[in-house]
Design a protein that fits this description.
Blueprint: E1 2-4, E2 7-10, H1 12-20, E3 30-35, H2 49-62, E4 72-74, E5 80-82, E6 100-105, H3 118-134, E7 144-146, H4 180-185
Parallel strand pairs: 3-6, 3-7, 4-6
Antiparallel strand pairs: 1-2, 2-5, 4-5
């Protein structure tokens, strides 16, 4: 475990004990999955976890956010950065931030871009599973959500693929794809 300012870098083995020690004062009912797009794998050098998160926070502040948008960031080496208090509502998906926890996964997981490392896959599954357990949530498409499933303008859930204005986030190849169907066959069985 290593801290610089508010940022706390954890190994996967340290995450559950850290999570268990947290006093969380808001109701959590869903976990958001995102990819950073930039920074991508080519920006990660194995030791610049803090620099990348500090840069993301600066970029988010320039967009008018009070601080970094996400609660957690996962890295290609399987490490986890605590970025924002769990008691602070994230700025991840319009319309579903209040009950949410936002996880940003470093990389561009659109087809033909970054291939997710096995360490990061394990990290994402572990974080998500631990959060579901902590908040007593059953794994499913209403408790684990992808940014792609929500309209960027209205914040409403898109019920038909291709409708509305959406991002590809968390990537067209994130655990097999960014659709609800891809979630059901890719990430959900691992949770």
């Amino acid at each position: 475990m290593k801290a610089i300012g508010k940022f706390l870098l954890l190994d996967l083995s340290e995450f559950d004990a850290w999570l268990d020690a947290q006093q969380i004062k808001r109701k959590i009912s869903l976990i958001q999955q995102h990819h950073t797009f930039i920074p991508a794998y080519k920006h990660f050098n194995g030791s610049n976890h803090f620099t990348l998160c500090q840069s993301m926070e600066q970029a988010h502040k320039e967009r008018g956010f009070a601080e970094i948008a996400q609660n957690f960031t996962s890295f290609p080496d399987g490490k986890i950065m605590v970025c924002r208090s769990l008691n602070t509502i994230p700025a991840g998906i319009k319309g579903v931030n209040t009950p949410g926890i936002c996880i940003e996964n470093v990389g561009n997981f659109d087809r033909g871009k970054d291939s997710m490392s096995s360490q990061q896959k394990e990290c994402i599954v572990h974080i998500t599973r631990s959060l579901l357990t902590r908040f007593k949530l059953a794994p499913g498409e209403t408790t684990v959500v992808y940014h792609h499933w929500f309209d960027l303008n209205t914040g409403k859930r898109i019920l038909k693929e291709g409708a509305g204005s959406t991002k590809t986030c968390p990537g067209t190849n994130f655990f097999g794809g960014n659709t609800v169907e891809a979630f059901k066959t890719g990430l959900l069985p691992l949770l």
